[in-house]
Structure formats: structure tokens, C-alpha cells
Design brief:
The protein has helices at about 40-45, 70-75, 95-105, 110-125, 140-150, 170-185, 200-205, 220-225, 230-240, and strands spanning about 1-10, 15-25, 30-35, 55-60, 65, 80-85, 160-165, 190-195, 205-210, 215-220. Helices cover about 35% and strands about 25% of the residues. The strands form two sheets. A six-stranded mixed beta sheet has the order 6-7-8-3-9-10, with helices on both faces. A four-stranded antiparallel beta sheet has the order 2-1-4-5, with helices on one face. The model has no long low-confidence stretch (mean pLDDT about 90). The protein binds adenosine-5'-triphosphate and magnesium ion (MG). Magnesium ion binds near residues 40, 41, 85 and 163.
Length: about 250
């Protein structure tokens, strides 16, 4: 379980989160929604201990990570598979080396073991045929899949964290990524998917959190989200509705 206990966070004088209380089980399938700059990515960074709250505590499986040092945070981060917003593949490395990177860095696997592990992971996300391509040669959807493959390289996470996994993709690719996200969670491992695409979130998540002005304006199921009276959320949903179906 991830617990935010009265978390506040600012970048300099810019207050992003105010006294946020939140509990998320590792099995839950959660979408964190909100407009640009509302603090969605910040929440993921806090979970990973990449930034520290100004006030409050963050507990991961009962373990207070707020005051942990960098070397102690490695075990915390290993619980998660993380796909960042930018996708961030290394441009100068081909797909195989991008996925192999963490294996080379953190394990003593032989070349043969690395090769077979990379092929296995790429196969599991449906891009084995891209193994020798460079990032610039990948379509947007393939790029996202390879980013997901890379996040899986080090083993089986307890939970997936996705930052805008379908943003910038055409509806077909976005749909495929949603399917992959759903497939990866079939065995009960949950995810937190940060997105501003409500239509995509509705396809895969069953708990929805809407961030506004540093607080959780909404936390509930899809019925509650779609029937809310909160004008900020209604406007958001209607706006997204006009942008096409997504996945
Ligand atoms: N490293 C940083 N230094 C200063 N301000 C930052 C930094 N990162 C983010 N911010 C600011 O903090 C606020 C929240 O950022 P965050 O990236 O969490 O938003 P977001 O909801 O993920 O937005 P988007 O939908 O555009 O990705 C924004 O106003 C942003 O400009
Ligand atoms: Mg973001």
C-alpha cells in the first residue's frame, strides 16, 4: 500500500500539493487525472522518493520513505515498474541495448542470458521484431512499448507507474497501449496511470483521482466521475470528449 499522509510539496515558491491524504493498494488500478501542471507527475516522483515532501509523510508498505537516503530508496523503487512521461529511450542505443541497459548495470547476467531475457520481454509487449531498430526508427506506439519493456527488465514489479502512456499516440496505438496496460495487470498487480486523457483512463482504471489546485477534487469510481457536479471536472470531461475516442 502507498500512503500519502498530509503531503504538501512546492517547487520553490510554486505550491503544487497541499495536505494530500491518499491510500492506494498495490492491486488497485488507479488513474490520476487533472490538467497540465496540476501535479500529476509530481505524485509519481514523490512515490519514488525522487523528491521529498515539504510536510507530511509517504509510506510504502508501511515503510516511511520520507527521510530515506538515496541508497535506501533503491529497494523502494524496485517495487515499481516506471514509464516516465518522456519515454526516455537512449537515442544512441538500439532497442535491444535500451532494454538490456539495466540488466548490464545492475545484474551479472551473461551475454546469452541478457539476449534471451531481452527477447522474452520484447515478446511480452509485442515488439520482438524491433529488437535491432534505433529509437528514431520506431513509431510512437512501438516507442511506448519499448519503454514499457525497459521498465520490466529488472523483474516483476509489485505495481506499475505510467506517466501519460497514451499521450501523443493515434487512437489505434493508444488503444493498443491501453490493452497492454490492462494485460500486464491481469494477475492482480495494479497501476497508477497519470493522464489527462479521461477516455483512456476509463478503459483501464477503476479508481479515478482528479487533482485540482493541489488537492484531490475527486476520488472514486467511474460512475461518480462521470456524474460529478464539480464544474472543473465536468468541463474537463466534456473537453476531452470532443478530442476523439483515444482508446
Ligand atoms: N523541476 C521543476 N522545477 C520547478 N517547477 C516544476 C518542476 N517540475 C514541475 N514544476 C511545476 O510544478 C507544477 C506541477 O508539475 P507536474 O509536472 O507535476 O504537472 P503535471 O500535472 O504532470 O502536468 P503535465 O500534464 O503537463 O505533465 C507545474 O506548474 C510545473 O511547472
Ligand atoms: Mg506530467
Amino acid at each position: 500500500m502507498i500512503v500519502f499522509d498530509g503531503v504538501s510539496f512546492s517547487y520553490g515558491s510554486r505550491r503544487v500539493l497541499r495536505d494530500v491524504h491518499l491510500s492506494v493498494g498495490f492491486h488497485e488500478r488507479v488513474a490520476v487525472l487533472g490538467g497540465s501542471g496540476e501535479g500529476k507527475t509530481t505524485i509519481l516522483r514523490l512515490i519514488l522518493g525522487l523528491i521529498k515532501p515539504d510536510e507530511g509523510r509517504i509510506l510504502i508498505e508501511g515503510d516511511d520513505i520520507t527521510a530515506k537516503r538515496e541508497e535506501e530508496l533503491r529497494d523502494v523503487r524496485m517495487k515499481f515498474s516506471i514509464v516516465f512521461q518522456e519515454g526516455a529511450l537512449f537515442d544512441s542505443l538500439d532497442v535491444k541495448e535500451n532494454v538490456a541497459y539495466c540488466l548490464r548495470e545492475y545484474t551479472s547476467m551473461s551475454e546469452e542470458e541478457i539476449d534471451s531475457r531481452v527477447r522474452e520481454i520484447l515478446g511480452s509487449v509485442g515488439v520482438e521484431q524491433a529488437i535491432h531498430l534505433m529509437p528514431e526508427e520506431l513509431s510512437g506506439g512501438m516507442h511506448r512499448r519499448v519503454s514499457i519493456a525497459r521498465s520490466l527488465a529488472l523483474g516483476t514489479p509489485k505495481m506499475f507507474l505510467y506517466d501519460e502512456p497514451t499521450t501523443g499516440l493515434d487512437p489505434v496505438n493508444a488503444d493498443n497501449i491501453c490493452r497492454l496496460i490492462a494485460d500486464l495487470s491481469k494477475d492482480g498487480r495494479g497501476f497508477i496511470m497519470v493522464t489527462h486523457k479521461v477516455s483512456d483512463a476509463l478503459k483501464v482504471a477503476d479508481r479515478f483521482i482528479f487533482l485540482k489546485d493541489g488537492s484531490l477534487l475527486f476520488d472514486g469510481d467511474s460512475r461518480g466521475l462521470l456524474h460529478t457536479d464539480a464544474p472543473e471536472i465536468r468541463m474537463f470531461i466534456e473537453e476531452i470528449g470532443h478530442q476523439g475516442q483515444g482508446c
